[in-house]
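fyi for ur records
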Amino acid sequence: MWQGRGVGARLLWPLSLLFALMVTIRRFGYRHRWWSSRPCPLPLVVVGNLTVGGSGKTPLVVWLCHLFLSRGLRPGVVSRGYGGNATHWPQTVTPSSDPRAVGDEPLLIASATGCPVVVAPDRVAAIVQLMAEQKVDLIISDDGLQHYRMERDLELVVVDGERRFGNGWLLPAGPLREPLSRLDEVDLIVANGRAAPGEYAMTLVGERLVNLIHGGEIPLNDLLGKTVVAVAAIGHPERFFRQLERAGVTVIRTYFEDHHPFNEADISPLLAQGTIIVMTEKDAVKWRPWLTKMGEEGERIWSLPVSAELPQPFTERLLHLLERNHGLKTTGNTGLPPL
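which gave:
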């Protein structure tokens, strides 16, 4: 519905006007100090989007962590921990954390980067705990563009290169959280896929499958001509399914709601189909609590990790902004190859 302006969207359009008024009042209130924002003592980079649903923020956050690490910096990450059911917040995330408590995306970031990660619905509280526990040089916020209690130094917006901004209307008639004019205020715009003028194109690359039981790897091309059950509980699953199909795989599409917390009732029917199961890396972390019960059945389960690739001009512009605006030295000799 959000990709067009049909009957359903038009019926909801009056509510979008109300939502737009709420967004405007909220922005005006923070801008004029009706509500206070909390400054961060360290450079704070926010990676967010304007639309509801997956656009590719998490791969970009992972890429940023590796970039800063390669420059001799110590990045830390804060996130909301969406989908986590912890009884208290903030929560420090490690690669061994329970995804049901802290959420899937923070666990993926911690596992993929080794960087300290703290989650909380109140990202200001997450920042306070992160700085108390770890010595970091800068902080990356996974999502949080609209979390105005958190003052930020750089804003990076990720755009879905396929769906773009849908019908261009605000919630609930369209997918927008804020008006498109908000893009005029951000520092850098990254397009996951095809980029428009003024945007930097990000490509997600995944060519090897990882087994969830023994950790072994095989080329994706090994599935050429085979039929697999493809499992996706992400914001835009079609991109994942098409990636498998381009590799010559016959895909049985299996959809779950974004951030779905998998349980045995979900997993048992998938195993009963008796074929290879392939899922995203984000979904794979949520299967960990059930792997010990699967035995040999689990050897049919694979994940397809993806990594982000961005053009050199984006790297240069990002580092220039950090050095110029915040005096953060990002060109030291670390002994590591440049990205």
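Confidence is low (pLDDT under 50) at residues 332-339. thats all i got for now
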